[in-house]
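Protein in question quoted for reference:
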Amino acid sequence: MNNKKIYISDVTLRDGSHAVKHQYTQQQVQQIASVLDKAHVDSIEIAHGDGLAGSSFNYGFSRCADTEMIAAAAEVVTHSKIATLLIPGVGTIHDLHAAYDAGARVVRVATHCTEADISRQHIEFARNLGMDTVGFLMMSHMIAPQELAEQAKKMESYGANCIYVVDSSGAMLMQDIRDRFRALKAILNSDTQTGMHAHNNLSVSIANSLTAIEEGCDRVDTSLAGMGAGAGNTPTEVFIGCLEKQGWQHGCQLDTLINGADDVVRPLQHRPVRVDRETLSLGLAGVYSSFLLHAERASQKYGISTMDILMELGKRKMVGGQEDMIVDVALDLKNANTRQAQ
């Protein structure tokens, strides 16, 4: 690769919200945003874990409103751009406008990998606001690389200036990443950037992110201490350390990130962000990483192992937005176990 600067998009305050059950306080938001801004990351994504307006019975209620968190971060940030995420059908263009008024200047419009067409009005609206507008294709492992590229092309045609390969399940390996970036690069305009969002459920988020860069990726999502759904995201401090060893440009202050990860973020984790039996199951089953806490709650209530629930969700090809089906799956498994015992 040439020695271009890699754009670092930190998602501690959005994807990382899953790891604290969406209970960040405004003070914690400001503390984390200050660390990231001091370290000169390019953007800081802020919202409920499931994006703008994600605070709900289905996804879990936030302690603070999205706009309150965005405004709190905007008060202390001087270098980094404030980003947010919107899932059409969860958030609306009105929510996006409110986020913009609160200080967000980057938006990632996120859809399931086969549903780029529902992003059109949101992408067009964001571009009209003058926002840095990103298409975010979740669960990118579920379709073939060429199909993913065709969905990416739709988002580009609506006005997205960057398209992300999103490994929501942490289910892909390095060759999977190579194939998808090559497919995107073959069809997208040369001035359309590409990005990588990796989860660490198979312990390869850093390897996958580095592979993406080798294939021309421009932006990489990371989070302090890997803070995120499932086994977490590509750890910001570790990834920047890897870029340093490669001699690749990133513009960040590594020491600040290392100290922020251990001193500020890691103590907040309700559940250790790591690869274990349950989070490994997410990657093996190809299941949405944010299903983890929902499955663990169903496990405790119905006496079915979390791993069994997650593997069954994978067999049924459940995707983001179907969190309410997790209880149904747990009950089905419980009933099946009861019948076998009779």
